[in-house]
Each structure stands twice: as structure tokens, then as C-alpha cells.
Amino acid sequence: MSYYDILGVSNNSTDEEIKKAYRKKAIENHPDKGGNEEEFKKINEAYEKINTNEKRQHLEFENSGINPNIFQNFPFGFNHQRRQPQNQQKETIIVVNLSLEESYTGCKKNITISSKIICEKCSTICNSCNGIGLISKTIQQQIGPLTTIQTTQIPCSKCNGKGKIFLSDCNECKNKREFEKTKDFTIEIPKLVNDNDIIKISNPLNSKEKIILKMKVTMMPNYNRRNNDLYYNLKIPLYDALFGNNWKIPHPSGKFLELDHRNIKNVIKPNSCKIIEGKGMNDNSRLHINFDVEIPTYRKDISLDKIDTWKKDFNNIFS
């Protein structure tokens, strides 16, 4: 006996009709009123199984031998059209080599772009796909009592996905129907681009293609970069660490930064760092100067008297 038979309703009954039938059956068969306890349990179980439309659909799937959870893995729902991506543009990668100085200021670069162009002399727009090269196709699949519908895009069979129909023999392309076109262009590179940054532009030779400009930034000697902060490794001899010096540090702006440490009493410790605000890649970033102190590994033979004298001098100078 089905759950519908237990409650005395049809499988087309509404939620309200099933609720009324349940209440009537429950009162008639309640154990406190002399009803059968087992029958009362069956009535409650039946109501729990079919009291909503969703539960009734779930039950129909189970009765038909279909796992209702199978549809959770479908990328499309019941009688639902899935939107397919439009014709994806072909992408061509061009590496653009830059110096750190060019990244700092921004610059213009010459690049060469090549593309296969469909010959216009011997072709016309395909009237089947309107020049797109793709047509829509609806796929219908029957799974048990349900019908699933999926809409996808496939290459146009009339023009073989070209979007063009070729008419006759052509002296322009020698019946190759397409030819390679190459042209030089000047592009603007914005300031502050970093290594491996990507800039996407449309291919000026072919609207169906994208050009990906991948930046390759070469560091200046002794420089590193993290985001817009710059890191400079300044190698100095031990006597400069002790007595100071006036260093001129090249900067990607094209200028030299002066770092005068002669009148500063503090000794420069190995791998200590000085930070200069606003001297990174922009006014909001910093330049980190690392002092790489070169410690001597060998000294010449000198008399012990001189060594003692120098030690005394050092004791008078340093504390």
C-alpha cells in the first residue's frame, strides 16, 4: 500500500488536501481514542513522506529507480538552458623587455604583431552563423521521467568555423583563403609595471584575437624590488663602516642619491639597513639600503709596535 493510499489521497493532491486527510486519519486512529497504534504510526510516516511537493517529487524519483541526488552534479537544472561562453578569443603572448628605469618612468615600446587574416578578396560572410563561426545546438536528454535540455555552441559546419564562405579561385591568397600579416606598433607602457605583469590589448590586425603583453623587468645592478619598495645592496670596506663616507647611489629615476655618513658617529654594523622614505618606485614607497660590510680576511706583516700604537689610537677613537 502506498503512502497516498494510507492517507486516502491521490498523487495529484495539494499540500492542504494531504494535510486535511492526515488530520482526519490521525484522529480516527489515535491510540488514546481506541485506534490501532501500528496504523497510527503508518499514517504519521506517510504524512512525513508526502506532506510537501518537494518530498513527493523525491519519492517519485526513488520509486522510478533514479537517485534524486544525481542532478546535483549536473551543470544544468531541469528543463534549464545552460549559457555557454561566447566564442573565446585567441590569445597571443608577447614578452616586453624593460629596464627598471623604464618601469619607473613609463615608456613607449615597439612590438611586432602577426596574425592570420582571412582573405577578403575571395570570401563573404556566412549567412548560417552571421560571421561568428559558431551556431547554437540544443541537446535534449531523457533521464527517467525527466527531460534535461542543454544549449551549447559548436563550429558552424557551413563555413567550418571560419565565419566566411569562400567563393572562387583567388589570385590574392593563391586559394589559401588566409595569409599572415605582420605589422610594427608602438605601445605605451605605464609606469610602475612589475616583472611578470600582464597587459591585455586587442589585436589591431584581428578583432577575434587578444594580445597579452607580459612584462620582463631587468633590475639595475645591486637592486631588488618588492611591490614598489626598492632594496639596494651597498658594499663598503671595513674602514668606511668605521669612519663613514659620502656615497652616491644610482636610482631608477636617473638621478643619484647622496648618502653622507662622514659626520655620523655611529659605526655601520654589517647588514644594517637605512630606509629612505619616498625613494622607492613612487612617493609612497621606500628605498632600503643594506650595508654589506666587507671584512678583510688577511693582513700584511707589520711590527708589533705599530699594532700596539694603532690599538691605542682605536681605543681613543672608538668606544
Features:
single chain, 319 residues, alpha+beta, Helix Hairpins, HSP40/DNAj peptide-binding domain, 3-stranded mixed β-sheet, 7 helices, 22% helix, flat
Notes on the structure:
This protein is of the alpha+beta class and 319 residues long. The protein folds into three domains: 3-73, DnaJ domain (Helix Hairpins); 90-218, HSP40/DNAj peptide-binding domain; 223-294, Urease metallochaperone UreE, N-terminal domain (HSP40/DNAj peptide-binding domain, Sandwich). It is 22% helix and 35% strand. It is flat. Strand 14 (273-277) and strand 15 form a beta hairpin. It has helices at residues 3-7, 15-28, 37-50, 53-63, 100-105, 238-243, 304-317, and strands spanning 90-99, 107-118, 123-125, 134-143, 146-155, 164-166, 178-189, 198-202, 209-218, 223-226, 229-237, 246-250, 256-260, 273-277, 286-294. Strands 10-11-15-14 form a four-stranded mixed β-sheet. Strands 1-9-8 form a three-stranded mixed β-sheet. A two-stranded antiparallel sheet has the order 2-7. Residues 70-87 have low confidence and may be disordered. It starts with a helix and ends with a helix. It has seven helices and 15 strands.
